[in-house]
Structure formats: C-alpha cells, structure tokens
Design goal:
single chain; Rossmann fold; five-stranded parallel sheet; 46% helix
Length: 164
C-alpha cells in the first residue's frame, strides 16, 4: 500500500496496522510517531515535526479527534475540525501519515503503530508522559525522544492572548 493509497482510506487504526506491516515488510525504515491536537498550527508544532523527521524515515502523526480534543481541552475546542487539521498536517513535508484517534490518550494509536521512535515536545519529561502511554512505549522497546521546547508557544497561550 502506497502512501497515496493509505491517504484515501479511512485512516483508522486498522488501516494504520496494515500500513505499518507493509512498511516493515518492504523497508528497513525507522517509523517515528508523535501525537497531539494540532488545533492551531504554530512554530512549536513545526519544530517538533522537523525534529521527528530527523530521527527516522517515516513520520506518523496521531491526531486527536474532535471529540477527544473537547474531552482534553473543553467545549470551546477544537478551533479547527479534525479533517482540516489532518489535511494541514498531511501537507507538511515532514509528515508521511496522519491517523485520527478518538480517545484522550494515544495508547491505541501507539499499540497499532508500534513506532521505533516516539517524539514529544520538550515541555514533557519521562515523568510527565502519560504513565499508560509511557509503559506501552517502553514495553515495545520504542525510543522516547524529547524535542527542544519552544517556550511561550502553545495553542492555549495563543488563544489566551486573542481572547484575553
């Protein structure tokens, strides 16, 4: 299955398993994962994704669905609907695949993808990662990498400035 074929599928987690299986059968490429809401794309997101690309051959973004963003961030979020956020992310040169997941945690996404490397922003630490996600990653032997943090830049901070 090519990347183009994958992008016309539902991009659900079952499709992600198929994509991963084919990539691992056909290449020795390193799969790098990250996840988040990516509600208003900003420089922190760009630098995270650029860092992810440096660490491997395929970058897969787990994107929180609209429902899971509301559960995490409140009823006023997301600002942009999931299909728009997915399209914007997919257009970036560092991103190969975007897969939407519907839960607050990324555990189902991580279990299906089994990434070689997992990247989070530098405002996270091993101790502040979600403990379930951290245990899943460690049990699979996934390398966890923290990208340099871009201070003062977050969707919440941006919205605070515009609504404030």
């Amino acid at each position: 299955m090519s990347e183009e074929q994958f992008n016309v599928l539902n991009n659900d987690l079952a499709d992600l398993v198929i994509w991963r299986t084919l990539i691992k059968e056909r290449t020795s490429g390193i799969i790098v994962a990250t996840n988040g809401c990516f509600d208003i794309l900003h420089v922190g997101h760009i630098r995270l994704l650029e860092e992810a690309r440096k660490l491997g051959d395929f970058v897969v973004v787990g994107l929180n669905s609209d429902r899971s963003v509301r559960e995490l961030k409140g009823d006023r979020r997301p600002i942009n609907p999931q299909e728009h956020r997915k399209e914007v992310l997919r257009a970036l040169r560092w991103v190969d695949v975007v897969s939407i997941f519907h839960t607050k945690r990324a555990d189902s996404f991580l279990k299906c993808l089994k990434p070689d490397v997992y990247v989070k922003a530098g405002d996270y630490t091993m101790e502040t990662l979600d403990p379930v996600e951290r245990e899943i990653l460690l049990s699979m032997g996934t390398k966890i990498h923290f990208a340099p943090y871009v201070g003062g830049v977050s969707t919440t901070a941006i919205l605070g400035r515009t609504n404030g």
